[in-house]
Every structure is written in structure tokens, then in C-alpha cells.
User: Which sequence fits this backbone?
């Protein structure tokens, strides 16, 4: 039996509004959560996602030269909406990305944003800088910069973000985090800081500590910094149970200072189930019932693969206390061709009234002779006509002049050989992310490319809440010391 199918993320621009993307510099904030959260409309939005390296039938590569998105279901100039152009260095690493929108009279492309990337000799990203062009200033203006630092073992030591201060004509700190490792080169601690502009110092806000047994993570404890008493206070804790080197159970706790004495209280539990080949095929979530001191069933996801039709399907369901049964929620089907490339993706929602599945969206993928993605067509389901209606087209233009090794950038969502998973998908309240490598950064993007949240988990396992988000398609970007990955997440209500 084949491994669980790796789902290539291709639905980034689904359900986009027809207004041109406008960049607005946002602001950062810190709350009592386990992350720094950002409301922002920039950062590496389309760059690393769309700049995919598409392999030919050999060792050479085709690099994405540009991407053009059409609205209004047509291919003519009048429906052109957005364009991204990519430049690479001599190692075929991303050097810069330019973004364009149509000018006011829709006759030509107008550049409005540029992103510049730098890498060291070990092909680790060391710098990211964002520039914009505004109606006030037609020249490229600095907006944001990130610096990445590594140790002699190529492990990430820290990341810091700065925003350009026009008044001081200099970069001003925003946030950073620092990582420490144990003698086994496993992450032992991470401390997050925000920039105190008044005192001109980095102020600690969050700390994570990690415990291992036989190099397997068994416990992660998070603390928040009390700025009045200058002490670290309990925040969250997760405990992990492994069998045969695979995660079987994860139990999460929150620190309750209302108890006397303050103590850890259980909140959620996740159980994972595997087939005979060791592939994960089912998850189940429980919520701790504090009134009856027991675990209540909450949510589950089951995956299946039909090798005869090359179709991968997953269905999620929620437990109904009233009916005492599992109620279907969402279903997503991925059909791949003989080369294991996605040719069609269809999503359905369960209709409780009719007791059947109703269409939500469909994506069709068209490949060229070299098996590279040439275009994608997005459809939405029209219930009134009982028909799929075309919503948008995207065309990928490739350059055959570049050749060299594959980059460190991946675009997958599912259970790959590197152990990456983002689930449940679709999601309603929480999304759980796991990787065999430490995830040092995690960004959540809206369908129009806006950065909604920025997390710095520095853990192989983490989670984000999507309870507050409207239903729709979102992007999760994760970064490790070795790669950057983009995954599609559907939020349902």
C-alpha cells in the first residue's frame, strides 16, 4: 500500500476578492497566548509559496518565472488582476519577488511590492526585506526586515524582526526569539521578546522549556513573564506518549491561578491511530469535562485511499451529545494522475437537512509536457443551478534557462516522509501541526494574502486556534532550519 498521499497546496487564491491587493503596514501585539500575534498585510505572502521549483524528467529544473491571475473567467487583458515575477540567484535560490497590479485604466502592470531574500553558504535564509511603492512616494521604500541566526551545527539560534522608522531613518526592533539546545542538539529552551521602544530594550514575554526521554519529546512547558513581579508564571503544558517512535497520545494542560494552590488543569487530549504500514489514518480529540472529571469525545478525522481510482479522501465528524453519534461535517477528495500529481480537488460540506454532501469548491490542474503546472481553474458550486461555475484562472509561466539542485522550499500538506502534518483539515476550532524538525516560525494567512498571525513555537508540535476566523480557505506557512512549507487549511463553521 502506498504511503498516505501528500497533498500539494494549490488553492491559495481561491475565493479572492476582485479588488487589487493593497498593502497596508500593520501592527504587532502580544497577549496571554503562547505566541506573538500580528495583524499585518505583508511579509513573504506569495513569494516562497508560488516560487516553486518544478522538476523535469531529469536533474535539470524549471523555475517559475511569473504567475498571472485572471478574474471574470476570461483570458483577455481586461480580466488580468495580479502578477508576481520571480528572480533567482546562481544557486537557484529565491533572490527577489516583484508584485504587480493593474493600473487605473487597466492597460498595463503597476509594481507595488518587492521582497528580497538572502541566504548563507549552507542555504539557510539569513535575511528578508520588504519594500513598497506608494502613491505618495514612487520609489522603493523600506518597510520590514527579518534577520536569522544559526550556530555551527546549522541550527537556528534566533529570529528578529525590525520595521523601518522614517523619522529616525533606521530599523526599529519589533520582536525576536532566541533558542538554546542541549548536548544532544535538541531544543531545550526558547525565549520570546518584544521591543520596548520607551526603554530601548528587548523585554521577555514568553518562555518554552522542553524535556526528552531517549531523544523523544515528552513534555513542553510554557511560561509568561510577569512584568510587575519580574518572574516567570505557568501558562501551558503538553505531555506526549510515544510507542515505537510514533506519537500515540498528546495531553494538554493550562495553568490555573484561580485554584488554591495554583495547578495544572487538563484541557484537551488527542489520540492518533495508524495502519499496519505505520501510516496515520485517524485522529480523535477529547475535551476535559471538569464537572464530571472525564474526557468527552469531541472531534475525529478519518482518512482513506482508493488505489484503484488514485483518490485520497478525508472526512471529519463531530460528536453530538444530543444524538449520541458522530455527525459528518466536511469531506475533501484529491484525485491524482499516473505521476501522482493532483489533477482535481473537490470539497463538500454535509447538509443536515438533506442528509447528503453539498459541493463547496473544485480545483482543476493542467500540466504541460514536462509535467509542470501550467494553469489552475477554480470553481464554486452553484446550488440553484446544481452546477460548478468557473470562478478564476491562474497561469504559470516558466523559465527553462535555470538548472541546478532542488531548493529547500516545499509546498505540501499531509503525511510526508519528513513527518509533517497539519490537521484536522477542514478545521473548526484548532489546527494541529507536527514536523520531524523543529518548527521555528508559523504564519497564518488570509485568502487575500494578509498575514493574520505570526507564531514562534520552536517545537516539533504546535497548534493554532481558528475559532475566530470566518469560514474559507487559509494558508499556514511553517519554517524549519531546513525548509519552508506552505499548507492549505479550510476553516468551516
Assistant:
Amino acid at each position: 500500500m502506498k504511503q498516505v498521499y501528500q497533498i500539494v497546496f494549490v488553492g491559495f487564491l481561491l475565493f479572492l476578492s476582485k479588488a487589487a491587493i493593497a498593502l497596508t503596514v500593520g501592527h504587532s501585539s502580544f497577549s496571554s497566548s503562547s505566541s506573538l500575534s500580528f495583524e499585518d498585510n505583508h511579509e513573504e505572502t506569495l513569494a516562497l509559496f508560488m516560487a516553486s521549483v518544478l522538476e523535469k524528467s531529469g536533474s535539470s529544473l524549471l523555475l517559475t518565472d511569473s504567475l498571472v491571475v485572471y478574474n471574470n473567467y476570461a483570458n483577455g487583458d481586461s480580466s488580468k488582476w495580479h502578477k508576481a515575477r520571480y528572480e533567482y540567484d546562481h544557486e537557484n535560490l529565491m533572490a527577489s519577488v516583484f508584485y504587480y497590479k493593474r493600473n487605473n485604466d487597466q492597460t498595463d502592470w503597476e509594481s507595488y511590492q518587492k521582497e528580497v531574500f538572502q541566504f548563507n553558504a549552507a542555504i539557510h535564509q539569513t535575511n528578508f526585506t520588504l519594500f513598497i511603492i506608494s502613491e505618495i512616494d514612487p520609489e522603493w521604500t523600506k518597510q520590514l526586515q527579518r534577520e536569522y541566526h544559526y550556530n555551527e551545527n546549522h541550527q537556528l539560534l534566533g529570529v528578529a524582526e525590525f520595521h523601518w522608522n522614517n523619522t529616525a531613518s533606521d530599523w526599529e526592533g519589533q520582536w525576536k526569539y532566541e533558542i538554546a539546545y542541549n548536548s544532544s542538539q535538541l531544543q531545550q529552551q526558547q525565549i520570546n521578546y518584544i521591543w520596548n521602544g520607551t526603554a530601548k530594550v528587548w523585554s521577555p514575554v514568553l518562555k518554552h522549556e522542553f524535556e526528552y526521554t531517549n531523544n523523544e519529546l515528552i513534555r513542553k512547558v510554557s511560561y509568561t513573564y510577569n512584568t510587575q513581579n519580574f518572574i516567570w508564571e505557568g501558562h501551558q503544558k503538553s505531555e506526549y506518549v510515544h510507542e515505537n517512535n510514533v506519537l500515540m497520545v498528546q495531553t494538554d494542560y493550562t495553568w490555573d491561578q484561580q485554584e488554591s494552590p495554583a495547578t495544572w488543569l487538563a484541557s484537551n487530549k488527542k489520540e492518533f491511530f495508524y495502519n499496519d504500514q505505520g501510516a496515520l489514518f485517524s485522529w480523535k480529540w477529547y475535551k476535559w469535562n471538569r464537572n464530571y472529571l472525564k474526557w468527552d469525545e469531541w472531534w475525529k478525522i478519518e482518512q482513506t485511499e482508493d488505489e484503484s481510482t488514485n483518490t485520497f479522501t478525508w472526512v471529519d465528524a463531530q460528536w453530538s451529545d444530543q444524538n449520541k453519534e458522530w455527525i459528518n461535517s466536511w469531506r475533501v477528495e484529491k484525485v491524482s494522475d499516473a505521476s501522482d500529481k493532483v489533477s482535481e480537488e473537490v470539497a463538500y460540506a454535509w447538509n443536515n437537512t438533506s442528509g447528503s454532501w453539498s459541493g463547496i469548491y473544485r480545483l482543476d490542474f493542467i500540466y504541460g509536457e514536462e509535467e509542470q503546472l501550467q494553469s489552475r481553474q477554480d470553481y464554486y458550486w452553484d446550488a440553484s443551478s446544481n452546477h460548478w461555475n468557473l470562478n478564476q484562472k491562474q497561469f504559470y509561466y516558466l523559465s527553462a534557462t535555470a538548472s541546478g539542485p532542488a531548493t529547500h522550499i516545499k509546498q505540501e500538506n499531509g503525511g510526508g516522509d519528513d513527518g509533517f502534518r497539519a490537521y484536522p483539515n477542514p478545521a473548526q476550532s484548532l489546527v494541529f501541526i507536527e514536523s520531524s524538525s523543529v518548527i521555528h516560525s508559523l504564519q497564518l494567512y488570509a485568502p487575500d494574502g494578509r498575514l493574520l498571525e505570526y507564531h514562534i513555537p520552536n517545537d516539533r508540535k504546535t497548534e493554532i486556534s481558528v475559532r475566530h476566523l470566518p469560514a474559507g480557505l487559509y494558508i499556514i506557512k511553517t519554517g524549519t532550519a531546513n525548509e519552508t512549507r506552505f499548507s492549505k487549511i479550510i476553516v468551516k463553521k
The helical segments are 47-50. Residues 7-491 form one domain. The chain has one domain: 7-491.
